[in-house]
Amino acid sequence: MDAQWRTYTPWRSPFDPCPPREQRAYIVPPNQFIQTQPRGLRQFAPREALRRGTLWPDLYSPYDTAGRGAQP
Amino acid sequence: MWIYEKKLQYPVRVSKCDPKMAKYLIEQYGGADGELAAALRYLNQRYTIPDKVIGLLTDIGTEEFAHLEMIATMVYKLTKDATPEQLREAGLGDHYADHSFALFYHNAAGNPFTVTYIQAKGDPIADLYEDIAAEEKARATYQWLIDMTDDPDLQDSLKFLREREVVHALRFREAVEMLKEHQDSRHPY
């Protein structure tokens, strides 16, 4: 699973009407772990940076829904 | 459910007859970052946020209603013995025409409360950041309200409410930290 995703299991009552959808997923993008961007971070190649929306791999958040492990 | 205690969270004493201050205080009653908006925002977010932070939203959302009651008490005390003419002089003529002495959920400029003041995105990080921003904005509003009165008793209650915003903002930031770390123990990756 993509390391940016977190999953949790909401509490379930024995009287819930619908079949359980046990896990929920939410994303924690990398901006949450950087207060001020340090100098000299690794860089994507220019063409790849244009496509990804950032020059720095450490700031890249793919939002890869296949890797989230559960629905939101 | 809730259990009600028939007392204010912190005493409210108003010692200066200043109906105009009621017009400004109402910002925290029915304004965008007022106590009503805060309570509704937090209590509503509880259903779609990880279980770890539901209790925090319940506690703070409930406290916001206690704050709402304090603001209401201030407004009531400042207006209850005024004449319609005095209310008019205080800039509350519009309010009297529509509501008489009743309190109403609107901001200092008279705009009625709207639920568009709040949001629920269902993304835990986005929702908690809205909560942090709301607390900081409410703290600022209390500062400007304190600046606008020289009544030391009213200032005392407002300073208490301002301090609660400071504490709540930190609690929400702690909640963000918990959600950044949190991984379901049943599905380690």
UniProtKB/TrEMBL annotation, chain A:
Q: Which InterPro entries match?
A: Spore_coat_CotJA
Q: Name one Pfam family in it.
A: CotJA
**Name of this protein:** Protein CotJA
Q: Which organism is it from?
A: Alicyclobacillus cellulosilyticus
UniProtKB/TrEMBL annotation, chain B:
Cofactor(s) of this protein: Mn(2+); Ca(2+)
Keyword vocabulary terms for this entry? Calcium, Manganese, Metal-binding
Instruction: Describe how the cofactor binds.
Output: Binds 2 manganese ions per subunit.
Q: Name one GO molecular function term.
A: metal ion binding
Task: Note the InterPro entries from the entry.
Answer: Ferritin-like, Ferritin-like_SF, Mn_catalase, Mn_catalase_dom
Under the heading CDD domains, the entry gives: Mn_catalase (cd01051)
Per its UniProt entry, which superkingdom is the organism in?
A: Bacteria
- Which residues are involved in binding Ca(2+)? D59
What family does the Swiss-Prot or TrEMBL record give for this protein? Belongs to the manganese catalase family.
UniProt protein name: Protein CotJC
Upper lineage is: Bacteria, Bacillati, Bacillota, Bacilli, Bacillales
